[in-house]
Amino acid sequence: MAGWAVVPPEGSPAQTLAAACGVHPLTAQLLVNRGVRTPAQARRFLSPSLEQLGDPLALPDMAKGVARLRRAIRGREPIMLFGDADVDGLSATAILYEALQTLGAQVRVKLSNRIEDGYGLSAALAARLSRSATRLVVLIDCGTNQAEEVERLGRAGIDTIIVDHHLPLESPARPLARINPHGIQQEGRELCSAGLAFQVARALLDGVAPQRARAALDLAALATLADYVPLIGDSRILVAEGIGRITSSLRPGLVKLCEDTQTRQPAPEHILRRLVPRLNALGRLGDPTTAWRLLLAEDHAQLPDWLAEAEQAHTTTKALQRRLIGEAEAQVNRLHFRDHMVLVVSRTGWPQGLMGPLASQLSARYGRPAIALALNERRGIGSGRSLPLVNLLDILRACETLLVEFGGHAYACGLTIDVKNVEPFRQLVNQHAERSVGREGLVRARTIDLELPLEEFEPGWIEEAQRLAPFGRGNPKPTVLVRGVTITRRSPRTAWLHTGRTQLAAKGDFVGLEPDGRYDVIASPGVADGEITLLVSDVKASLALSELVPT
User: Fold this and answer.
1) To the nearest whole number, what is the mean pLDDT of the chain?
2) Are 505 and 532 in contact (CB under 8 A)?
3) What is the DSSP string of 305-351?
4) What is the DSSP string of 116-164?
5) Which residues pair with 450 in a beta bridge?
6) Looking at residues 487-493, what average pLDDT do you find?
């Protein structure tokens, strides 16, 4: 079981924010816990707006890329957009496609088929483009580390613009323009590819049709959530401004998908659980074209067929995932997983499009990074998912001699490996993981925002704390530790929390608790119709103060 660590309160910074911004001291402490320390930062965090969004032209190579696109539009040059198959790649491609169409560009789209071609621009497609009349290619949510393919296009006289948020490795591609946020210091560095595409659209449409860029906020918010981007800085603004537009979108396919999945409220957890899996499922099985069509701002007679196809793909991937997790867990048990800091599972016949979800499930279930590989006769193609404190991309760098190719982020990576190297890789990746972070890197202490007695929960500051929404990675829901309460169950999922003077309603898992026991709980407070309800996420028998994990 994970330890608990309460963030030490910082009285002076919190008091300064409370006084300067007119917020409750507890709300100010929540802001400080999230790295917000100045009144200007606090006002931006509490009232995010598009006016605060970073200047698109401050992004690397943005001016150069936009100038080339405008030249192509003026000269009626055909523009080829090549986009990745997940929600981020599809959304980013749709944003750029619609912005270019608004300006009258001659634009066509090719989407990645990861099953047939692997990740990113394939060598075969680069060869075909080199023999075509195309003179401008935009690689979206891919391309950063595809130096050979981009160089091949360049030798054929084709300019390449890359719009991608993946981390550049030692020898990245050198296109005409690489619009990638890594390496810049401002908050825009956290943008996903759709966030970058939104900024490209702003720059393109500035002075021509600036309001048309706002029409893409729903897709920018959807992709930011889908890619689990930290909800800080510009990404927070995009989600805050765009999340409400997802369920009230002007995109017929997205609206109908919301209706079919009963996604009525623009809550991040609903979007992630109901919309994103259906859109991602098509690309995981091969061709993402139907998902792309559902995201466009176009009505079509085939819309019911496309929605049915997305639902069928979702059903198929869920069934496959159940089988895969069973097979993977059997491997994990044979490997004596407690001896492995990084789990590496592989099997012939696994669908490579499902390796990301499989690695994610294994990582969550076993509390350590996981890599899942789909094998064929020659190679394994797969994905890795990691935890805080374990930079999986750095570990893969250390194993580079055993890999054909790799890329991604600290928490999510893709890789290709020769089959003969799978076992040596399993050993080497664990050696480097333990060397880089030590076994303590797997200790998952649960970080808690505040410790309060039950008597200090007040509707006023709880409602004010909701101004920190939208919540997600980098900005979790506020959590509070309450010590020494008794719990009276009303049902397996509802209860009263008591102290000598106060009782509050709570929701959570209360099975197996003793009615006269004393418990410490972690809860996220909420208010409905003036009544406080605590959403309890963890319960333990009361601990001594010394048993809490220090931060």
Assistant:
1) 91
2) yes
3) HHHHHHHHHHHHHHHHHHHHHHHHHHHHHHTTGGG-SSEEEEEET--
4) HH-SSS-HHHHHHHHTSS--EEEEES--TT-HHHHHHHHHTT-EEEEE-
5) 480
6) 89
The model's pTM: 0.92
Residue 131, judged by CB atoms within 10 A of its CB (0-12, 13-18, 19+), counts as exposed
Q: What is the pLDDT of residues 122-181, one digit of tens each?
A: 999 999 999 999 999 999 999 999 999 999 999 999 999 999 999 898 889 999 999 999
Please answer whether residues 342 and 362 qualify as being in contact, where contact means their C-beta atoms are separated by less than 8 angstroms: no
Can you identify the CATH homologous superfamily of domain 445-551? Bacterial OB-fold (2.40.50.200)
Residues with Cβ within 8 Å of 345's Cβ and at least 6 positions away in sequence, in order, are 328, 331, 332, 358, 362, 370, 371, 372, 373
State the amino acid at position 515 in one-letter form. P
CATH number of 335-442: 3.10.310.30
Structure tokens at 405: 């190719």
DSSP 207: T
* pLDDT attached to residue 90: 98
CA 352-354-360 angle, to 5 degrees, is: 125
Measured distance CA(495)–CA(196) in Å, rounded: 45
Question: Domain-by-domain residue ranges, the chain?
Answer: 56-304, 335-442, 445-551
Q: How far is CA 108 from its chain centroid?
A: 27
Rg (CA), the chain: 25
Fold of 56-304: inorganic pyrophosphatase (n-terminal core) (3.90.1640)
pLDDT tens digits, one per residue of 201-255: 999 998 787 788 899 999 999 999 999 998 989 999 999 999 999 999 999 999 9
DSSP tag of 8: P
